[in-house]
Amino acid sequence: MSEGKKRRVHTAEFKAKVALEAVRGVKTVTEIAQEYGVHPVLVGQWKKEILENAGALFDVKRGPKPVDESSPEDKLYGEIGRLKMQVDWLKKKLGGMSAAERTRWIEQGDKVPLAMQCELAGVPRSTVYRRLGAAGRAQSEDEEDLQLRALIDGEYTNRPFYGSRRMVVFLRGRGYCINRKRVQRLMREMGLAGMAPGPATSKPQPGHKVYPYLLRGVAVTRPNQVWSTDITYIRLAKGFAYLVAIIDWYSRKVLSWRLSNSMDAAFCVDCLEDALRHHGKPEVFNSDQGSQFTSSAFTGVLKREGVAISMDGRGRALDNIFVERLWRNVKYEDVYLKGYANMAELTVGLAQYFAFYNAERPHQALGYETPTRVYSEGTGGGALIVDKFGDADREPEKVSGTGQRRAAAEVETDTA
């Protein structure tokens, strides 16, 4: 009878090292997980823990550390003696452990070579190589998931009304033998759902307050009247990055943006603080019902500034249409054309694109003016979300201005 698989235990130092690598944001979670031989979910959890507990490091007052008067030679000999005693103790205990248990100690990519690890653990190298071969097969499955995510991301960007059923048909047409359950898992992990009226298409975090939508039929007639935000996936050569941006509805200007290798609330709050610091504050701030935007950390900043909070209704594809159009432009005009390999390249590329998007790219809805000019001068812009699912007898507020009429027409075109 085969022995049960022993759970791998990671030291606090190892977790801190992996979490700090994730906090740096230079690599994707998938790259970090493959480098250190852990599951991507653990990388995200450890990053979240270190962000949440970082403030505690500065709560305790530190006094002067006691001076160690021993010489460096004494320290060295003492350390050698301590290590020898520990090794001798471990060798005595190894006699009661099975070879299978000692085999689990071997880790590929460790500073100690595999041959030396096998010698110290007292296990044959052939056993270790078989185990590593099985791990390689699991890694190939992860690589296939990355390919499927990339295909799903591209098709969803082009057809956001596709749910898991249509996505299965699309992937099978590309030659993948895949079932709906796997597609549902991948789309759930990516935060994607078909944009059509239906139950439970957007689920906030339990316990988080959801605010009503305040912008249906409201004419946006000036800059900083309404800001909006959303998160999207961007595929890289190894893994995915998460992009959050804040846009001014009147001018379509991107006020602030941030990248992250995990979908936590911290980088969304940082993006919001940056927009408030450089552009003042809006009258209304709109978002979807995602856990990042319903969290107390995010809504607390808006309450502190006295900003009215608005959130998209469930199954309402048009409530945040301007940010959705921004994501389409970013992906088709930059990301898909350049095929960024890593986080560093993506950061530089997006900085160049958003500078072009704001200051140089003419927008049809703005009378072919740029968002920066419309935002600074306060003329030529506008927005209006038409309530096509509400009361048919209710007419929206009157909208004046060429840019506002174009904005309403743009929304009508998107839904056709």
What is the CATH topology classification name of the largest domain?
Answer: Nucleotidyltransferase, domain 5
| E-strand count | 7
How many distinct helices?
Answer: 16
Order of helices and strands: HHHHHHHHHEEEEHEHHEHHHEH
Cross-sheet strand order for the largest sheet? 4-3-2-5-6
Strand % is 5-15%
Class computed from helices, strands and strand pairing: alpha/beta
CATH superfamily of the largest domain: Ribonuclease H-like superfamily/Ribonuclease H
Largest sheet: 5 strands, mixed
Judging from the principal axes of the Cα atoms, what is the shape?
elongated
| Average pLDDT number | 78
Give the total of domains. 3
Low-confidence stretches: 196-203, 391-416
Give your account of this protein's structure:
- The protein is an alpha/beta fold and 416 residues long.
- It folds into three domains: 12-52 and 72-130, no CATH class; 144-190; 219-415, Ribonuclease H-like superfamily/Ribonuclease H (Nucleotidyltransferase, domain 5, 2-Layer Sandwich).
- The protein contains 16 helices and seven strands.
- It has helices at residues 12-24, 29-36, 40-53, 72-94, 99-103, 114-121, 125-158, 164-173, 180-190, 266-279, 291-294, 296-304, 321-338, 343-359, 371-377, 402-415, and strands at residues 219-220, 226-235, 240-248, 254-260, 284-287, 308-311, 383-384.
- A hairpin with a 4-residue loop joins strand 2 and strand 3 (240-248).
- It is elongated.
- Residues 196-203 and 391-416 have low confidence and may be disordered.
